[in-house]
Amino acid sequence: MDRPRKTAAETLVRRALPVLAAPILIVASVLLVLHDVAFRGLITSQHVDVLAYWMPTHCFLGSSLAAGEIPTWNPYAMAGAPFASDPQSGWMNLPAMLLYTALRCDVAIRWYIVLLPIIGGLGLLWFLRREGLSRTSASAGATSFALGMAGSMLVLSFTFAGALAWTAVLLGATSAYLR
């Protein structure tokens, strides 16, 4: 009796599932922890920097880029202040530039908060796999890292959350370069 042949789609799913399981787990777990931020628009007003500094700054960045201009000067801050030369402006921060250009500011800030732990978790997963850890170990470490960021108030401190997330990506890139 002949066994039915596997289709190309079944073979693709069988090969892709182990590779995609960890990234899906990281994204799903961060979305589970930050579901109120991502889907209900809940942003705390207790952490002053998010709404008072980052949202107007990134919103100006996104609206300028959407209008097709490079924001070198911010006329709305302190009667005018340099913008692109300010290291905290978000200029050259690709996730901020993309999110605030494509989405409304209130939606973009929520997804920026959610995106930083995801970037950190995926970056650490990349690093740990490049360093030879098993899929299970790398998945556990990267998911723990992403959940640690997502579940703490650190996620609302964009400077530190971004530094952690991009350091994990840099570790992965350095590991890939050195191998």
Q: Termini distance?
A: 48 Å
Residues in helix, %: 55-70%
Main sheet makeup: 2 strands, antiparallel
Beta-strand share of residues: under 5%
Based on secondary structure, the structural category is: mainly alpha
- Which H/E pattern describes the elements? HHHEEHHHH
Number of helices: 7
Tell how many strands the DSSP assignment holds. 2
Question: What does the model show?
Answer:
With 179 residues, the chain is an all-alpha fold. The chain has 7 helices and 2 strands, in the order αααββαααα. Strands 1-2 form a two-stranded antiparallel sheet. Strand 1 (73-74) and strand 2 form a beta hairpin. The protein is elongated and about 75 Å long.
What is the strand and helix layout of this fold?
Elements: H1 8-33, H2 35-40, H3 48-66, E1 73-74, E2 81-82, H4 94-102, H5 105-130, H6 135-150, H7 158-178
Antiparallel strand pairs: 1-2
Helix pairs in contact: 1-5, 1-6, 3-4, 4-5, 5-6, 5-7
